[in-house]
Write a structure and sequence with these properties.
There is one protein chain. By secondary structure, this protein is mainly alpha-helical. It contains six helices and no strands. The longest helix is centred in the middle third of the chain and has 37 residues. The relative contact order is 0.16.
Amino acid sequence: MSRTKPFVRPLDSEGHWLADDRRHFENTHLLLAELEQVNAEVIKQWPKSLSESVKKNETTKAHWKLTRKRDLLSDSVKVFSAISVEAFLNFYGVYRLGEAQFHPELEKLFFKAQLIRLLKVCDEIDLTESHEIIKVAKKITTRRNLIVHPKTHEISGYLSAKDRGGDKVPDVAREAVSDMALFFQHFVELVPGAALQIPPPFDVEN
């Protein structure tokens, strides 16, 4: 930000904002709930022992498509959990600083840098790399980046599905949602007055 001391709105400011952070938060929970259902059906139809991989020609077309849907949902949970916390931080920046101050310099920062700078400017909090919110932020963004910034790796020859690694489904998606909740928990611990701005608990059944 400029050397001029920025104007920071108080945490109880009233106003109107167009923001999608709560929608993305809810979408993350809805996607995980659907993933759990689809994964249960994939397991139910698995034609071999669950410890064995299955090739496309070893199962039905419908079951193969269901496994692809399972994997799509898993990836979506990981991406939307990151979108949720990033959308919240963008909202928080505009909420406290206004668009005119936030957008030119802070909006385009990478997530970790934006988090550190916002809490310093708005709340006079100095975060270090060892703080738990930074650790969980790194996990969230790393998980997202593996999907949205995919890399190609050269290998010496054919690798079986077992040797290719990859995420455990739905375990990693569950972890993504837990990390999202943990990020918000740490944020409120740092800035208790921001509790009302955090997405509220979401019940997928209602």
